[in-house]
Write a structure and sequence with these properties.
- The protein is mainly alpha-helical and 471 residues long.
- The protein contains 19 helices and five strands.
- The protein has a three-stranded mixed beta sheet with strand order 1-3-2. It has a two-stranded parallel ribbon with strand order 4-5.
- Helix 3 crosses helix 6 and helix 6 crosses helix 8.
- The radius of gyration is 28 Å and the shape is elongated.
Length: 471
């Protein structure tokens, strides 16, 4: 039977009471609801997590095919997933032996000592990969792989973060082009090393802080384009599965209050909730771009407290609105890193709040034209090294976000819509953005107002002249 649905029809799912739930899934449901609501994931659940491969669905379609290279290593293969292709990376393979020796010298430990330390966690490291993907390697071969790859990654991070003279070795053995692509390779989802291996090596190299400062400097180099140490801790009490997961948790954060008023976990109430709260199509639509928001009196501002990395906040004032975004740098490696963080969030058995997907969904809505990029740059929110502003627009357009934190995104868009739907606020915004946007326009507006008042006064006193005091 055919059914016609109009744009005003509800598209919702009714939640009934006392739904039977498998006892094994009660904890999983609770963890996901808490995580989507803004609570930091603790990763204390019992199920074993794995370093996943890129889901085939993400590689389908026009954009998926175009972005395929963003998931495959260009310079170096790390871990077992692309190990069979190491012939392609022969130069990097030779360089790994050099970085192993350099890392050994830096720690003042022999290579045998490093090998034995990593071997203590080799069985746990093996469990981090998908079942069967490491069967071709015995413990000795697998441990050597973990040791070489781990030292290679940390040596590169230290070169960037500490800006020491050893960074020239990357140019010597990999060339400038290879060096430029290394950052992208170490953040590929399928190119990850279990963090328990990196943790062992970091403690040997940086016993005073377990590598906190070197990771802090490296991550801020990616975020801001400069090596700086910020107060926010990179490691803290986190137990990341790999480096990509750790960087994702540091890249941006959403406070728990951001989603506390969402409709998640509540039954539909026709008295208190709007239709849009339960209409997926309506609540999932995008909002205006940067220039369109500016015309409505919503101005952008870079967050003043970057130590928290809280990336998206909106404030509606009496006469204007303020959208606060965290400052971020965009480089030729940024697109691949973003796509791999999104892919990480899309993988199964992976508790997360879709923070990267949500952030990029917001940026895709804001950045439509080159003028949007220019405005973000003027406000100090976006710094890029892609040459032209159009390249930034193209990058965001080519990034797909299959899912996001719908509750957070919906709440943000709803707040912006409520501000834009206020006639008083939009009229005031039009006054300032159209008629008082520059000194000459302001002067012309004042002159026109003065002429109008003078004309009104002249007309009034012509009709009703003042009494003659002499008579």
């Amino acid at each position: 039977m055919d059914m016609d649905m109009t744009e005003t029809d509800d598209v919702s799912v009714e939640i009934t009471d006392n739904q039977p739930v498998n006892n094994n899934n009660i904890g999983v449901i609770g963890e996901w609801v808490a995580c989507l609501g803004g609570k930091e994931a603790t990763n204390d659940y019992k199920r074993q997590r794995h370093i996943q491969k890129v889901p085939p669905l993400l590689l389908e379609g026009e954009k998926g095919q175009r972005n395929r290279d963003c998931y495959e290593p260009a310079v170096v293969s790390l871990g077992p997933y692309h190990h069979k292709s190491r012939i392609r990376f022969a130069q990097a393979e030779k360089y790994e032996h050099i970085t192993l020796k350099e890392y050994s010298l830096s720690t003042r430990e022999t290579i045998d000592t490093l090998y034995n330390k990593v071997f203590e966690v080799v069985h746990d490291a093996r469990k981090c990969y998908i079942d069967g993907s490491t069967d071709a390697y015995n413990d000795d071969e697998f441990n050597q792989m973990m040791l070489r790859d781990g030292c290679f990654v940390l040596f590169y991070i230290e070169c960037i973060s500490c800006q020491n003279n050893k960074s020239v070795l990357n140019n010597e053995y990999l060339g400038a082009l290879g060096f430029a692509n290394l950052t992208c390779d170490i953040f590929l989802l399928e190119n990850q090393i279990p963090f328990i291996v990196l943790e062992v090596l970091l403690k040997l190299r940086f016993p005073e802080d377990n590598g906190e400062d070197v990771l802090n400097g490296f991550f801020n180099y990616l975020n801001y384009g400069e090596v700086i140490i910020r107060d926010k801790k990179v490691l803290g009490r986190k137990q990341p599965l790999h480096l990509l997961e750790l960087y994702r948790s540091y890249f941006i954060s959403f406070s728990a209050s951001s989603t506390k008023s969402s409709c998640m976990g509540r039954r539909r109430s026709k008295e208190n909730d709007s239709v849009e709260d339960y209409n997926y199509v309506k609540r999932n639509r995008s909002f205006a771009s940067v220039t369109e928001l500016k015309a409505k009196g919503i101005f952008l501002k870079s967050t003043h407290d970057e130590s928290k990395n809280e990336g998206i906040k909106f404030y509606s004032r009496h006469c204007f609105g303020k959208l606060v975004l965290v400052r971020r740098a965009v480089s030729p490696n940024t697109k691949a890193i973003y796509l791999n963080m999104i892919t990480y969030e899309m993988c199964p058995h992976n508790l997360n709040d879709f923070r990267i997907s949500t952030y990029l969904r917001v940026m895709k809505s804001l950045v439509i034209k080159r003028n949007d990029v220019k405005e973000l740059h003027v406000k100090g929110i976006l710094i890029h090294s892609l040459g032209r502003d159009e390249e930034v627009v193209k990058m965001y357009d080519e990034i797909e976000t299959p899912a996001e934190n719908i509750y957070l995104f919906h709440q943000l868009r709803q707040e912006i819509d409520e501000h834009c739907n206020s006639k008083y606020k939009t009229w005031v915004a039009e006054l300032f953005t159209v008629y008082l946007s520059g000194p000459w326009k302001t002067m012309a507006m004042l002159v026109a107002t003065a002429i109008l008042l003078t004309t009104l006064l002249q007309t009034y006193f012509t009709i009703r002249p003042l009494p003659d005091n002499a008579s």
